[in-house]
Specification:
Layout: H1 7-27, H2 42-64, H3 75-95, H4 97-111, H5 118-139
Helix pairs in contact: 1-2, 3-4, 4-5
């Protein structure tokens, strides 16, 4: 019977293989073509196969090389980051880019396990808000409201 020596590597390899097989299966629906005349499914199939091979290497490494066990998950960062993304998506049209960026950075700072001083986090949020407004509104000319719409 096989003994898993590295839980992290083994299950990461299983995940990679599963994603690679899924990608290859989905991409095989398109015309693959040949290396000389590639179809729209050629690169996705190639990348799916490559991901599966990398997953197999990692999986075999998990069976042969000792490694650490899987640690319990940390839910606070996951919940905060997902909440920040959902909040951004829901508020971008109503509150505007500056406010949404500020809130996303603040939630990201709360997700960090170490203590980030509120003043430093607020300064970083204001700086990122200014940066995103300058970049997306003034430099790239994106039609996004800065402070929200009426």
């Amino acid at each position: 019977m096989l003994r898993i020596k590295s839980q992290q590597n083994f299950w990461a390899g299983v995940l990679f293989v599963a994603c690679g097989v899924f990608e290859t299966t989905m991409a095989a629906q398109y015309d693959i073509g040949s290396p000389a005349a590639m179809g729209p499914g050629f690169m996705p199939v190639l990348l799916g196969i490559t991901l599966s091979v990398i997953g197999l290497v990692i999986l075999v490494g998990g069976l042969t090389v000792d490694g650490p066990a899987i640690e319990p998950g940390h839910w606070r960062p996951v919940v905060c980051i997902i909440a920040a993304l959902v909040l951004f998506a829901l508020l971008i049209n109503k509150a505007g880019l500056a406010v949404c960026t500020f809130l996303v950075v603040m939630l990201g700072g709360i997700a960090y396990r170490g203590k980030v001083p509120w003043l430093r986090l607020s300064a970083m949020a204001v700086g990122m808000s200014v940066f995103t407004v300058v970049l997306f509104i003034y430099i790239l000319g994106q039609p996004i409201a800065v402070w929200g719409s009426n």
